[in-house]
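writing this on my phone so excuse typos. first protein, seq and then structure
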Amino acid sequence: MTERGFGSADPTRGRFRDYLKTVVRNAAFRHLRSKTAAPVSAGALDDQPADDADPTDREWREGWQRLLLGNALAALARHEQASAGNLYHTAVRLTLDHPTEDSARLAARASASAGKAVTAEAFRKHLSRARRMFAELIVAEVRQTLDEPAPERVLEELADLDLLRYVREFLPGG
């Protein structure tokens, strides 16, 4: 991929991640064929089922999901750093790291992290606003990966990657 680029990528033929997956699969196949004495059939890698029964496909989807969520969290962290008094990333991170704690305990953790007093009410407000921004960032990340980022394609991709649970309540009509 790095040697040849993406010259043969055709936006009308599907999602970029499917193209990328095929390119990597074919490169791996060529590498294996050059290393093994016994020939491997050209369809051996393509004969795998495309649903979640295939561990490779499931791993690919989970890796892609982690990358998109990680990018959205990183953007949230950058927003927090650039905005004085903002605790969006801190609120989301604490909620993810301590899912069973109530807002009073999470506010105490946020206070220790921020070096200033944060009430439970203020923490809940930061978290509410942070969740909305996090959802917007996830949608933006997914939109960037699509050749045709029409709303229905974005929804389809969010569903395919099991990301709707993070954004559903913030979508129009959600």
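second protein below, same order as before
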Amino acid sequence: MNKIIEKHKLYKGCVCESRGASGGIATLWLQDNWNKIAETVEQHWIKITLKDNMSSFQIIIYNVYVPNH
């Protein structure tokens, strides 16, 4: 996943790689529009705080992966 992010220079990202058979997760954003303030990466979720470069508006995004048993 990190290779994909590096290939596309317009984007920045935060990645939780897959572990065994469980899938990984990623959160991507346009680097020209958003600036990363903070991130937390755990096995099944990513929390990221982004700030808009034009207005200083901040958002918090949770990206959650839960296996469906």
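The longest strand covers residues 34-41. thats all i got for now
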